[in-house]
Design a protein that fits this description.
16% strand, 12 strands, 46% helix, 11 helices, alpha/beta
Amino acid sequence: MSYSRNSMSIVRYETILRIVLLCVVIAMTSCKKESDEQLSANGCNEVTVVMSVNALGDRNINDKIYEGIFFVKERYVEDSSVIVRVLVTRSMQQAEHLIDYWMKGETDARRLLVLCNETMGDWLTTHDGWSVKANSDILVLDSYHEYEGVYNRYINSYGVSYMIGALVYYFGTERDEQIVNTRSKPALICANKQEGHIKDAVAGFVDGFRSLGGELDEEKCIIALSDAPAAGYDMSDSVFRLSAILCEEGYDFIFPLCGGSANGVYSYAISKIYFNSSNTFYTCGVDVDVNEVVMNSLISTLRSYDLLLKDFIADWIEQKPLALHSTEFLGSKYCGYAYVGGDYRLTNNMEKVLVESQAAEMDYCGKREQ
């Protein structure tokens, strides 16, 4: 077999090209390895979020937390130095295992662990070896407890709940004269009575309602769905049935402090309106705006953990100075209300009640700190 000069030249060029390409690949692989090692050692930021049990899909505060994480992911989507992980838990035991795995893990990257409820934060004081290590930080959400060396962010629910209690009183005492019962009869459905944000909200509503002369029997009107902390948030079917019972018993306002379980209240209220029933109750959004969905919602309270988390993580990644402990109150960027207007009983008293609620919240928190 013989080759022409042109054929030999082509073979020679192909050989040289293969050698050049091989050298380029080797060089690129080497550079990438060095780059990855340098990134892991010096510039990588790992954010791990442990969600509450069965949290996603509650259309409440946990969905708002996830929304905040989504904003963070979108902001740093093209930044390979930022890694965000969201861990969805099916049980408290699984959450405990995942946190323990993070605590015992070792890496050269900067790490941030976000715990999304008070119960997981309290574990930091009861588990041996669970402490902040070099290059690692921990953030606990929705807890006013101050854990040593750990960030905590709490949006207080007392003031905004006080405002709801006062407005419900005004709403009840200024009804049409044809209605015999001119006083509101509110009920509070709580996920549980152990967690701090629920205790604050209950205290706020009761104080606000009573500040104007409202009468409320706490033993009958305050109902807990569970005796355990971090529980009672995924019982919307049971709450739907409970709403029917409360409605028949003459309760005309339901304050749902039960996260995703509140969807049972909203569903029942919507069904009564849909069938044009006069025997119904009013309610409100808690932590999220439901005014456009639930027609007999008077007002919605807002605790914007989505914005808070987005701001905190951005500052942490950029290594800005951060206060270790922080509580937000009614009127701040992260705590307020949504009101569409249209009802003179609320509109005429809104400004006055807001000022009184802020003053009452400062007094309440001041006494707790003593």
